[in-house]
């Protein structure tokens, strides 16, 4: 669709684009077009004023940043003078907003938090005098030693003891140090007011080479399986924080550091073989315990070797619920589902104490009966 008429609100003339002819606007619409002209001018004026305000604010912020930058550079020069790296007479000849080191001319670097300036050249003596630590994987993550600590959590960065490179705290394996001022139980953050065996310590970065080296040297950390262990707020427990009471189940799936729980507190999660008296974790496949009377059967090694014990307990696994019961509690010769004839135990049997179930019924058949009741098939 082509435009036929175009009105110039500034000159109040109409342009007939088909005939290429211009003429004054009709008198009867002059007042309406005048109001339209003022409305459009108001919109344009407000947009221009808003843009000018944004430009002024941007200029103000830029000048403020430049002023802050000049102040930081001057503080940087004063620090170098105090450390004897440059002469005080040279400061007046140095640019106040320089981006380069006055000693080696390399680019400056700064802390992400306090903005203190140093040299980016690791071989420059300025970088040693004012250390700025940088993550090896994230080059824009930089902190001075004063800002390295992170209240309420791990430090911002940590140094891998194997490759000597710095990484973000989430990229390292840590031990926050076993508390020695209390009973050693209960999770606690790294900054809590406790006397610890050591401060937060990085054990290894996530590289396979460093983790293998740490493991071979016996310096790697382990994850304590106790949910109330103090190390739960860190990541692992280092060898120095592991006590002689540490426990490792033969299955290899359960380990506790020993510094977070006593024999009494862990008794409910540990099974002791009545034959060899070795300890096992509760879900361990090497041993079983009755879920009703808590009697523990001999471990698999004792059974295999035919080792006799004072009271021998044999534990069976229920075909229905997969629960473990001793022979006395299982009573499997007398208990079977009245519908499917599957052997069931006292854990999953539903007997005639419920009016809807007059006989012993397993869980699967009970669910089937409930569905039949629901759909009116009974």
Task: Trace the largest sheet across and list its strands.
Answer: 1-2-3
The coarse overall form would be flat
| Low-pLDDT ranges | 262-266, 351-357
Q: Residue-averaged pLDDT, rounded?
A: 81
Tell me about this structure.
The protein has helices at residues 30-82, 88-91, 125-129, 208-216, 263-266, 300-305, 327-330, 363-374; strands at 5-8, 13-16, 21-24, 108-110, 117-119, 132-134, 142-144, 157-159, 166-168, 172-175, 201-205, 247-248, 255-256, 270-272, 279-281, 315-317, 324-326. It is of the alpha+beta class and 378 residues long. The strands form eight sheets. The chain has a three-stranded antiparallel β-sheet with strand order 1-2-3, with no helix packed on it. A hairpin with a 6-residue loop joins β14 (270-272) and β15 (279-281). The relative contact order is 0.05.
Compact description:
With 378 residues, the protein is an alpha+beta fold.
From the structure above, extract its key features:
alpha+beta; 17 strands; flat
Please write out the topology.
Blueprint: E1 5-8, E2 13-16, E3 21-24, H1 30-82, H2 88-91, E4 108-110, E5 117-119, H3 125-129, E6 132-134, E7 142-144, E8 157-159, E9 166-168, E10 172-175, E11 201-205, H4 208-216, E12 247-248, E13 255-256, H5 263-266, E14 270-272, E15 279-281, H6 300-305, E16 315-317, E17 324-326, H7 327-330, H8 363-374
């Amino acid at each position: 669709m082509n435009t036929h008429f175009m009105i110039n609100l500034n000159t109040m003339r109409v342009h007939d684009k088909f005939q290429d002819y211009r003429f004054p606007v009709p008198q009867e619409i002059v007042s309406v077009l005048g109001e339209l002209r003022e409305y459009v001018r108001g919109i344009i004026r407000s947009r221009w004023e808003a843009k000018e305000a944004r430009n002024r604010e941007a200029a103000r912020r830029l000048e403020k940043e430049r002023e802050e930058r000049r102040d930081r550079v001057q503080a940087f020069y004063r620090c170098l003078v105090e450390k004897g790296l440059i002469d005080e007479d040279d400061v007046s000849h140095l640019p106040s907003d320089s981006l380069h080191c006055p000693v080696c001319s390399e680019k400056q670097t700064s802390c992400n938090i306090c903005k203190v300036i140093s040299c980016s050249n690791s071989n420059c003596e300025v970088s040693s005098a004012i250390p700025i630590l940088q993550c090896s994987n994230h080059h824009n993550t930089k902190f001075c030693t004063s800002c390295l600590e992170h209240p309420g959590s791990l430090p911002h960065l940590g140094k891998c003891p194997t490759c000597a490179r710095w990484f973000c705290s989430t990229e390292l394996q840590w031990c926050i140090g076993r508390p020695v001022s209390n009973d050693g139980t209960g999770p606690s953050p790294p900054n809590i007011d406790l006397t610890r065996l050591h401060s937060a310590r990085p054990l290894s970065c996530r590289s396979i080479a460093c983790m293998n080296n740490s493991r071979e040297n016996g310096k790697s950390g382990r994850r304590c399986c106790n949910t109330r262990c103090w190390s739960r707020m860190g990541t692992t427990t280092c060898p120095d924080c592991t006590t002689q009471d540490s426990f490792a189940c033969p299955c290899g799936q359960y380990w506790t550091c020993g510094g977070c729980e006593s024999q009494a507190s862990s008794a409910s999660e540990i099974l002791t073989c009545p034959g060899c008296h070795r300890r096992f974790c509760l879900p361990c496949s090497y041993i079983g315990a009755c879920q009703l009377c808590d009697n523990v059967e001999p471990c698999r090694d004792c059974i295999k070797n035919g080792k006799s014990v004072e009271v021998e307990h044999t534990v069976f696994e229920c075909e229905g619920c997969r629960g473990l019961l001793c022979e006395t509690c299982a009573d499997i010769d007398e208990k079977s589902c009245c519908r499917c004839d599957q052997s069931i135990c006292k854990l999953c049997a539903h007997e005639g104490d419920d009016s809807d179930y007059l006989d012993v019924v397993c869980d699967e058949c009970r669910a089937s009966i409930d569905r039949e009741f629901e759909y009116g098939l009974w």
